[in-house]
Design brief:
- Belongs to the STXBP/unc-18/SEC1 family.
- This protein is of the alpha/beta class.
- It has 7 helices and 7 strands.
- It has helices at 22-28, 34-39, 68-80, 96-108, 147-151, 157-178, 191-208, and strands spanning 16-20, 42-47, 55-64, 83-90, 115-120, 125-129, 132-135.
- The strands form 2 sheets. The chain has a 5-stranded parallel β-sheet with strand order 2-1-3-4-5. A two-stranded antiparallel sheet has the order 6-7.
- Strand 3, helix 3 and strand 4 (83-90) form a beta-alpha-beta unit.
- The longest helix has 22 residues, at 157-178.
- The two termini are 19 Å apart.
Length: 215
């Protein structure tokens, strides 16, 4: 991603700016030090929701969750003509509705030619060590997929489903990154079964199209 989604090169890296949201910051922080980012050509890294000045001659790599708020901020960057080119990397697959909004704004601002790449990275988990990961918080900063939120007495069906979907999204991202399909075993008649059923459905939907599978 930091090499514009191309194979790593041994020559001097191209200078670039990295823009991330809070979710992206949590994912990147355990993986790279500031020195390592600089060695990869990242001269500046900033949060998406802070005020940023225009740097017209530098490409920008975005690593963000595809929420409505984040897509709106990216569209404002197009409108303000902040950067020379845009490489958009979404932590989870961007919904079609948000992709259409992005395309419409890019067309309106006449910057389609400067949007070089758009990628779904399937990276909604935090890797702390080689064999240790945790699921990320949602885009609103609230940890949905927790034991407490799934088992508290006053949880509504909507809250439980949100928690389950958050966990499934993170787990699917993990296995998509590993490129492997797991054997799923779970206890019955509880949240674990809900997670396993939804996760199983995601795998089956992905494997159904052999031309576009992640595995």
């Amino acid at each position: 991603m930091l090499n514009f989604n191309e194979p790593s090169r041994t020559d001097d890296p191209q200078w670039k700016i990295l823009i991330y949201d809070r979710v992206g910051q949590d994912i990147i922080a355990p993986l790279f030090t500031v020195k390592e980012l600089r060695n990869l050509g990242v001269t500046l890294h900033m949060l998406l929701d802070v005020k940023r000045e225009a740097i017209p001659d530098v490409p920008a790599i975005y690593f963000i969750y595809p929420s409505k708020e984040n897509i709106s901020r990216v569209c404002k960057d197009f409108e303000s003509d902040l950067y020379d080119s845009y490489y958009l990397n979404f932590i989870s697959p961007i919904p079609r509705e948000q992709l259409e909004i992005l395309a419409e704004n890019a067309l309106a601002e006449d910057c389609i030619s400067r949007i070089k790449k758009v990628y779904d990275q399937y990276a909604k988990f935090v890797c702390l060590e080689d064999d240790l990961f945790v699921l990320t918080e949602d885009s609103g900063g609230v940890q949905d997929g927790t034991f407490y939120s799934l088992n508290k007495m006053n949880s509504s069906e909507a809250e439980i489903q949100t928690s389950v979907s958050t966990m499934v999204e993170g787990l699917f991202s993990l296995f998509a990154t590993l490129g492997s399909v797991p054997v799923i075993r779970c206890s019955r008649a509880n949240a674990a079964e809900m997670v396993s059923r939804e996760l199983d459905a995601r795998f089956r939907d992905c494997l159904r199209d052999s031309r576009n599978t992640l595995f």
